[in-house]
Amino acid sequence: MTDQVVRPDGTGFSLAGGELTVAGADGGTVDASVSARLLDGFDVTLASRSTADPGDVRSEGGRSVLALETRPMMLNSLPSSVRVRLHTDAAEGDWRLILRFRNHAGSSLTWQAELPTEAFDAGWEAPLADLLTIDRTADEPAPQAPAVSVVHHPEDEYYELLVDGQQAGLLVYHVIGSHLSITHTVIEPTYRGRGLSWALVGGSLDDIRTKYPTVMNYCPVVSRFVEKNPSYGDLLSQPRRV
């Protein structure tokens, strides 16, 4: 028998598109990247554009709009800032970066920023939450975001992460008497780099909290999750890194 813990409710936003814009008719040659370090320690590229594969360019309101190739990352799996780097033979002037996030219900969030000088040099640590705005008039159809859920298997002592019904990861624990110890988490290779360990750990801890006042943790991924989410700190007894 399984116990459904987290159900996809349509409120999770994922990255659905992005673009660079610059004043004038020609953005020149452009190499750009937007990257983030995820909970599990992976550095992942969220959006990019390469001179070798320039993609779409259009003119809109006196600005060149350069489409970015994006990765469908879950917004709540991202850290508080992302690193933006831009190399171009055009002037450093009025460059703007736009990222768009959507959820199952079709609601959308837009992240937009004017790029400072740092973005053209070593890279700019750009805040995420501070620059997000709600877009209430999205006229594009919402892309089909993956259905993510966490299912508890108490008889076998693990939580299972499902993505579109397929097993994507496990959080394994052991119970001895009245004590629960988390031993490790695993994300399947084909699902890594998408921030899914955040969903697995968060969903598992939310359910564990309803059954145990504290737990012993031996998993470094869980430790990093709690460091980023201190509201879970009271749940762990002597959290540790391995």
TrEMBL record:
Pfam family, one: Acetyltransf_CG
Domain N-acetyltransferase: 151-237
Domain of life assignment: Bacteria
Protein name: GNAT family acetyltransferase
Organism from which the protein derives: Kribbella rubisoli
